[in-house]
Specification:
With 290 residues, this protein is α/β, with parallel strands linked by helices. The protein is built from ten helices and seven strands. 43% of the residues lie in helices and 13% in strands. Strands 3-2-1-4-5-7-6 form a seven-stranded mixed sheet, sandwiched between helices.
């Protein structure tokens, strides 16, 4: 069976702690970083009034070097995926799928709404119930062009979940898959990518991934070890890592016509060049297109 979300969500029926942390760092970006790379007016309200008030009172609590580096990685990967979506929409794509959506906010600030872009959020049912409670408590309305695709991967596949939400496999789609692959087996990752590779021409997917510790410099290796230990401590251990060149070959072998990997130096030049606040990313991304 394919897996999109973290294993602990399926096991306990509780939302991922990682998803909560990602949402908080996205919100802190709105308060601390200048210029803002990912303008997200929904990032703070979706957290609830109490958490929003605490963050506004002292966002610097989440600004130590490790969290600042993680924040840079999070906002760059989201901006990258949304830039790829903008390219896809310009070429005629009208379906956008957010895999392992968590508290992703794109659907509630969709700049392509006038283009009739339909958004599908895929996640475990319990996570989506939690998110809908957050949205309701914050008074954030559900857009008409948004469809939730709850998928319990113990009982259904990604294809079945999307079909039940009205996703069309006869027209192209753009996928975003962020902050998930490191928690999955290589088999599960390739199965999900194969589904996208089976869609019509002009479909694409953007995703991030880990590389083996041996490919990191000493400082990055230490940071990675600490972050990996923290993830394991909350029941969300990292599982997979890839050599970028080998990953590209694997992705192309699935049927994609192109697969480009983006290293930290290139992403920093593209998105974080000459910033006064020193915000940087150490993440790696891949964009595969049909």
């Amino acid at each position: 069976m394919m897996a999109i979300s973290h294993e602990n969500i399926v096991r306990t029926g509780e939302p991922s702690r990682t998803a909560s942390r990602v949402a908080m760092l996205r919100a802190v970006h709105q308060l601390l970083d200048e210029p803002i790379l990912l303008d997200d007016p929904v990032a703070l309200p979706i957290l609830g009034r109490e958490i929003e008030a605490k963050l506004r009172e002292d966002p610097f609590l989440y600004n130590d070097p490790m969290l600042r580096g993680l924040r840079g990685t999070l906002v760059v990967r989201s901006r990258f995926a949304e830039d790829e979506l903008a390219r896809a929409v310009a070429s005629g794509v009208r379906q956008y799928v957010v895999l392992g959506a968590g508290l992703d906010t794109f659907a509630y600030r969709n700049p392509h709404e006038a283009m009739c872009l339909r958004v599908f959020e895929v996640d475990h049912p319990s996570t989506q119930q939690w998110k809908q409670c957050c949205l309701r408590d914050a008074g954030i309305a559900l857009p008409e062009n948004l469809s939730f695709a709850p998928v319990d991967f113990e009982h259904a596949t990604l294809a079945q979940g999307l079909e039940g939400a009205g996703f069309r496999t006869d027209i192209p789609a753009c996928f975003s898959w962020l902050g998930v692959t490191m928690y999955l087996t290589e088999e599960a990752i390739m199965a999900s990518l194969s589904f996208v590779a089976g869609l019509p021409k002009c479909s694409s997917i953007s995703f991030d991934y880990r590389v083996p510790p041996s490919m990191l410099d000493p400082i990055q290796r230490v940071i990675g070890e600490v972050m990996g230990q923290r993830a394991a401590a909350v029941g969300e251990p990292w599982v997979s890592a890839f050599d970028p060149a080998l990953l590209r070959q694997q992705v192309l072998s699935l049927g994609f016509s192109e697969a480009a990997t983006f290293e930290p130096d290139e992403l920093n030049r593209r998105y974080l060049h000459r910033r006064k606040d020193g915000l940087r990313t150490s993440g790696r991304l891949m964009c595969a297109r049909m």
